[in-house]
Every structure is written in structure tokens, then in C-alpha cells.
Amino acid sequence: MIFDIHILGSGSAVPKLHRNPTSQYINVLERYILIDCAEGTQLQMQKYKVKPQRLQHIMISHLHGDHYLGLVGLLSSMHLNGRTKPINLYGPPALQKIVFDQLHYSKTTLAFDVHFTPLESKESELIFEDQCIEVYTIPLEHRVYCNGFLIREKDKPLRINKEVAMKMKVPVAWMHRIVKGEDWVKEDGSLIPNSDITLPPVPNRSYAYCSDTRYAESMLSIIQDATLLYHEATFLEDKLDRAKKTYHSTAKQAATIAAKANVSQLLLGHFSARYDTTEDFIKEATPIFSNVKAVEDGDKYSI
Ligand SMILES: [Zn+2]
Questions:
Q1: What's the CA-to-centroid distance between 142 and ligand 1, angstroms?
Q2: Residue among 66, 183, 196, 297 flagged as catalytic
Q3: Do the strands 57-59 and 87-91 form a parallel or antiparallel pair, or are they unpaired?
Q4: In this predicted structure, what is the pLDDT of residue 104?
Q5: pLDDT, position 13
Q6: 75 CA to middle of ligand 1, Å?
């Protein structure tokens, strides 16, 4: 039951040797999703041993270069490496023109289809679902139109309490009805309440990615109770003015969002290149939300 987040880039704006700009590779129940694709993402994939050809979805939050300038290179390499399987691309409408103009002027015809979903709503919308997972946008507040993404498992069925079921000799033929919530009607007509035979479902896991954004309580209802929240913390509080001006957040603001949304764990990232270490980010966030980590390139988080 894999739900892994690989951090390929944890920085903002300008690449540094040990901190690439933003990209994350997610494996959720063997659905492979790339969120953002800064320049250098291909090399980060090689370095951290994740496979680009497995990707089924690429989701781009916004059109600042540190979130998408590696995309055309990645698509070109997939083509050169023999990909024929289609890929789903999601992002602001202009992304389609940006990608296809670059391919056009290099006379590149990809050997696979790119199914593009334009994102332009100011409301959260469901952009992908299958049997097991669903992905929603999280409208953010940035200088340009920007979305985060919420990836969550779908509701799971009730679990049979095996010990009780064996003792009561519940017929196998009834099991699929009981896990859907039905009471068990015995052959003699007597009724056994569903709650006597079942255990609650395994809780859904969810991952909320929120970058880039200023402090925005509008996201709270969408990310409420998430298992893991990644929230940008480009600055510390001493640069609050700069954060406001550039529509970014501080570590304290990210921690406040995590606390108000009642998430289980917080990851901070998208650090400004002016900071050499992340200790002060953790120091600033911890009094407000204690289960917090600062991400580094190459980190993997399993939820
Ligand atoms: Zn940005």
C-alpha cells in the first residue's frame, strides 16, 4: 500500500548545488505523479533513482520558471527514450502553448500523446480519479494563477471482524454486503447489526502540496485533516515584508496553516537561496506545530 513522496527539489527560484528548485515524484498505489518540474528535474530523477517513464501524470502548479522549466526537456527525453504511452499534463492554459511552441520550433513530434487539462478555476476541482485515488486542485494565492494539489485515497470499505464473524458463523456469501454496511439477516429471520460484525475502515491517507502561496486560510477546508502537508516556507518571519510583497509564506505562517488544518505532519520547503541551513525554519515553526520537518533534495516520505 505504497504512498511515497520523493523530494526532487526543495529550493526556490535559483538552483543551488545541493538544493534544486521544486519537483516531487509521487507513487501512490502505483500511480506515478510528478508535481512541478523545475530545470534539472531529469538529473534529479537519475540521481535519486526514480523512473521518468513510469510517470502517468505531470501536474504543474504555476508558470514561474522554478516550477516548470524542466518540463519540455523531460518530455523530449521521454520521446528519445522510446516512450509511446500517453501522459496526462495539467496546468494553467498557457502551459500548452509554451510546451507545443518549443516542440514545434525544434521540429519535434513526440511519439506519445500529451493529454492536456487546463486548470483555470478559482474553486477546488476534481482533476483525476480512478478506483483508488482522487486528485483535487487547491487554489492558492500567488502573484500568478497557482494551484496546489490534494492526492487522497478513496473511502475504503468496512472491515470484517474475523474473530466475531467466525464465532457467529457468518456465511461467506454475506461478507460483500456486510462490508458495504448492511446488517446480517440470519436464516431464522433474526437481525445482527452491522456494527457487531465489522471494524471501521482503514483511514484514508492524503497528501496536500501547497506551493507557492502567501498565507491563505482559504485552503483550510480543502486540506483539513490531511495526513501530510507540504507547505512552502520561502522565508523566515524576519523577512515577512518580503514574503508579503512576493506572495510567499514564512515558516511561522506554514505552521499556523498546519495547526488550523489539523494535519498530522508538516513538511516545509521552497526555501529561499539566501538561507544556508533550515534549522531556523524548524525553530520558528515548532512552537506552533511540532510535527514538522524541513525537506532536503533526495528525501523520501512514506505515509
Ligand atoms: Zn512562484
A1: 7
A2: 66
A3: parallel
A4: 94
A5: 85
A6: 22
Compute the distance from residue 139 Cα to the ligand 1 centre, in Å.
Answer: 13
CA-based R_g, the chain, Å: 22
Residues of the domain holding 249: 3-156+202-302
| Same-domain status, 50 and 194 | no
Same domain for 147 and 30? yes
Mark the ranges of the chain whose per-residue pLDDT is less than 70: none
DSSP letter at 187 equals T
Domain boundary among 170, 199, 228: 199
Distance from residue 1's CA to the centre of ligand 1 (Å): 33
- Tell me the pLDDT tens digit for each residue of 211-240: 999 999 999 999 999 999 999 999 999 999
> What pLDDT shows up at residue 17?
86
Taking the C-alpha atoms of residue 10 and residue 209, their distance in angstroms, rounded to an integer, is 12
User: Quick one: pLDDT at residue 105?
Assistant: 95
| pLDDT of 65 | 94
The total of structural domains in the chain comes to 2
The sign of the torsion formed by the CA atoms of 192, 194, 198, 199 equals: negative
Instruction: Check residue 14 and give its pLDDT.
Output: 86
Q: Kindly give the distance from the C-alpha atom of residue 64 to the centroid of ligand 1, in angstroms, as a whole number.
A: 5
Surrounding ion ligand 1 within 5 Å at CB are: 64, 212
Q: Confirm whether 241 is a catalytic residue.
A: no
Q: Are residues 242 and 98 in the same domain?
A: yes
Separation of 36 CA from ligand 1 center, angstroms? Answer: 11
Residue 163: which residues within 8 A CB-CB, separation 6 or more? none
Q: What is the CATH number of the domain that holds 229?
A: 3.60.15.10
